[in-house]
Structures are given as structure tokens and as C-alpha cells.
Amino acid sequence: MAEQTEVLEQIDPRDIGTPDNWIPRHPELIRLTGKHPFNCEAPLPLLLKQGFITPTSLHYVRNHGPVPKLSWDTHKVVIDGDVSNPLTLSMDDIAKLPYIEFPLTFCCAGNRRKEQNMVKKTIGFNWGAAAVSTAIWKGVPLRYILQLAGVKNDDNYEKTRYVCFGGTDKLPNGYYGTSITLKWAMDEEKDVMLAYEINGKRLTPDHGYPIRMIIPGIIGGRMVKWLDKISVTNKESDSWYHFHDNRVLPPNVDAERANKENWWYIPNYIIYDLNVNSAIAAPAHDEVIPFSSFSSDSEYTLRGYAYSGGGRKITRVEVTLDDGKTWLLSDLFDLEERNGRTWCWTFWSLKIPTHSFVRSSEIRVRAWDCSQNTQPENLTWNLMGMMNNCHYRVKIHVITYGKDVVLRFEHPTQAGNNPGGWMVRQHELEQKQSAPANAPANASKSESSSKDPKYTMEQVKQHNNEKDCWIIIDKKVYDCTKFIPIHPGGTTAILINAGTDCSEEFNAIHSDKAKKRLATFYIGDLDDSKRPKL
Ligand SMILES: Nc1nc2c(c(=O)[nH]1)N[C@H]1C(S)=C(S)[C@@H](COP(=O)(O)O)O[C@H]1N2
Ligand SMILES: [Mo]
Fold first, then answer.
1. How many CB atoms lie under 10 A from the CB of residue 205?
2. In angstroms, rounded to a whole number, what is the distance separating the alpha carbons of residues 534 and 522?
3. Which stretches does UniProt call biased (Basic and acidic residues) (predicted)?
4. Closest by alpha carbon to 316, among 362, 364, 374?
5. Model pLDDT, residue 441
6. Structural domains of the chain in order of their starting residue, each with its CATH number
7. How many whole angstroms from 283 Cα to the centroid of ligand 1?
């Protein structure tokens, strides 16, 4: 069944001029935050086509900043804090220790966020439904390393003891880091490990080379990459990212309120375990079936993935074609188990008569796990757009092309800035309808007039450095030289875009507030009259 895509690894032209210009990447990965930092997912049909194990080159990537350049020979991991025997281990030391190796599904808490963004913009970028992948990971149990550092198995782990993980990537708000409880770390059945191999080879730079945390059953965000520090403490991690990322806040809390009232520090809203989720991969978005191609007995096989968190097994996946009146039970594959737990996704499929699409307007899927958790019918918006797991809906359209009548399928969204999707259309319609009353939403638009100066691309290109930095966003030119030192996303983030059109990068990650702030740097419009019309 698995049809592995050939690994085509070259430096992508989009990485030239960024700090990641040394990392080979698969050209088919969809980039979600423009050129840099690198955040990507595979096209959903391509991901499923790989089968149960995702080739490393197509595994989704979530990097908050540039990838640190580390070497196996010089890298060290320090284990300190509340331990009787602090350690500093080299990679060779670590690779000599007993290891475990098993397949694990990784999933970013932001998987399916674009659907949330279509309801209302969250503070995150547009993940489609492929921020999920499965690889075979090999490494040393964390428990084993902690024992070497003097943590005893019979220690009375109080609730207040934690293990904090730190990466070497220094970001605008400090080092990336997070934590779990010591009790969790020491539980043999939880399989927590320090991994140095993926799919039988050393880690790739994007996945944490030379070493990263692996914590099965939970969101990817806690599996710190480029790991160099493990500390046993009485407090959870003090990394900014531990508090300001990977949380589901209640739906009535917006960014301003969250910051003003410190919602980030309320323990209830932190995410550990994944929730139950599923998606449809076949039919794919924009897949077409001509009526002429099927007879009264032809069949179509629906396919997709499902997963849950905390080692909970997927027990059923159901499909409805009549808005939830009846549910069809699908077949499940690849129920991988380890010590009675499931750390992996499950593929599902369901054969239906092709003509049943004709009477239906929507295919909808929901999964159940062994705790009888299932997916909610409707989406509940949250500020970070995380853990979206509402029923996955694919619309069915009957379209006439001349003499031909076809069925065309439409997914809710397409990853990143890619157009298409019924939620995207709905969103655009709503925006159009609310535009006259609400024009200044795009503050920059309201400011420009025909009298404003015009600059050609050639002119903008000259202003490409720290002392003189212009950028183009949505055909408007901004002089953001003064803003460089105070940019919340760091100076490099602006400088790698100096003198260029970075609409995609900017729009992917900035809030409405940031957009309003940008307007103050507006100096004129892009003169693109000399560009050939497409
Ligand atoms: N040091 C470090 N670790 C990190 C991150 C990061 O930016 N820096 N991103 C996290 C997030 S949010 C996710 S979802 C996973 C993604 O792992 P992957 O890129 O190997 O798929 O890594 C996590 N670990
Ligand atoms: Mo993530």
C-alpha cells in the first residue's frame, strides 16, 4: 500500500538569502509562513499516499526561528537542577546507552487552524489538515538518563517537581523550552525519550539534529528540538514559549484581554494530550468525477486519517452523507499498539456506491477513541486557533461543463495562502459584505490616494539594509528602517525581507494590530505598470 515518494533533497531557491540556506528541503512541501522561518506541511493527498510511515522529507516542520547549526561531535546535553549527580553528555555518550525505537505520530496543536482563521483571525498562521506525520523514532529513555543523574525510581515525586527542556534556538522572546512533570518523565509506559534517529537515520536539521525530546501522545510543541538542557525543578519551565504558545483559551478571550489580564498563566488552559481528530484525504480538494465515468454499480473509496492523544486508541471512524441522520462505519487500518497504548494515527477507508454522492451535498467524518471521546460537530474559535477538531466536511458540487456533468469536491480550506475551500469562500463573502461599513479594517488601504508617490520594484530593491529598509506589502511601500530595532519578531525577520515584496510572509503571521502599526510607515505605492500583465 505504501508508495514512498522519492527523496529529492536540494537547496530550495526560497531558502537562499535566509539563515536556513544550508538545509535541503522537499520542493513539494507547502510553505505556510513565506520564506522564513520554515513552517510547512505536505499536500494532504501526497501525505496519505506515503502510507503509515511518512518519509522524513515530507514530515511537517514547525520552526519558530532559524535552524541552529549543530554538530554531532561537539554537541552536549546538560542534565542539572534538583539532581544528585549533574551530567554533561556528548552525542557519542548518549548513543551508547540502551535505546527504544517505535513509530509515533506527531501533530502540531495548530493542525487545521486555517478553518479557525476563516471564522475569525487567530494569532497563528494557516495550517491545513497535514500538520501531522508519523515516523519511527529511536533514542534513550529520559527515565534512564534521569536515573544516571541520580533521580531514583522510588523517589516520592511530588506534584511540584518538573523536568524542563531547553533548545539551542534563541528566539525573539528567549530560548524555546517547555516542561512535563517528573512523574510523567519517570513513567516507563509513557515512553518519553531523547531521540537521535528518525526513520533509521540521524535526525535532519529541521527535525532537531542532533537530538530532540519525544513525548508520545501529546502535541508536537513540547517535543523540544536541538535539545541541550534538561533540568529537574520545582517549577514548570520559565520559557516565554511555555506560557505564550500551545494553549487553548476560552473563546471570549481576545489578544488584548489575554495580555492585559494574564490569561497565559492560568494552568487550566495549557495543552498536553492531543484530542481526537480525523480528516478526509480522498476525495481530494477539487477532485472531479465525471458522471459518464460511473455506472449504477461503481464504487468510490473514501479515505483519511484519525488520531487521538494520551495513547488512546481510535475505536471507530464514521461518515455521514445526510447531515448526521445516519452514520456509516468505516474500516480501520494500521492500529499500531505498544504496551497497550497507541502512539500512532489510524488510516480509515469506506467504500460507497458512487451514486450516493449525487443525493448528498456533503461528506462529513468523525472519529471516536477508546474513552468514547468524539469530535464536536461545530468549531469553537480560540485565540491561538489550536486543537481544532470539529467534524471534517467536504462539500459535493454537481457541475455542468457543456454536455458533461461532473461531481466536484471541495475541502474547507487549502493550507497556507493557497486559494480554494468552502470556508475560504464563505470568509471572502463575509468580508465583502462587511467592507463598506468597516473599511478601515485594512488601515493602510484607507490612507493611500492617487496623489501618493509611486516607486518601482527597482527603486525599492535599493533600500535593502539595516540603515535604509523598505518593504512592499500588498502593493504598498513602507519605510520600516526606524522599526527594525523594536520589531517584536526580531531584527533578522525584517532584514531578510528588506527591499522585497514580503506580502506573503507579513500577512501569514501578523495581527490586525500589527497591520495598523505598519500603516504608520507607509510612504507610497508600488508602481507595477511596467510589469507584464498575467
Ligand atoms: N527548539 C525547538 N523545539 C521545537 C520547536 C521550535 O521551534 N524550537 N517547535 C515545536 C513545535 S510547535 C512543534 S509542532 C514540533 C514540530 O516538530 P517537527 O518540526 O520535527 O515536525 O517541534 C516543537 N519543538
Ligand atoms: Mo506546534
1. 21
2. 27
3. 448-459
4. 374
5. 45
6. 74-100+135-267 (3.90.420.10), 275-432 (2.60.40.650), 452-524 (3.10.120.10)
7. 30
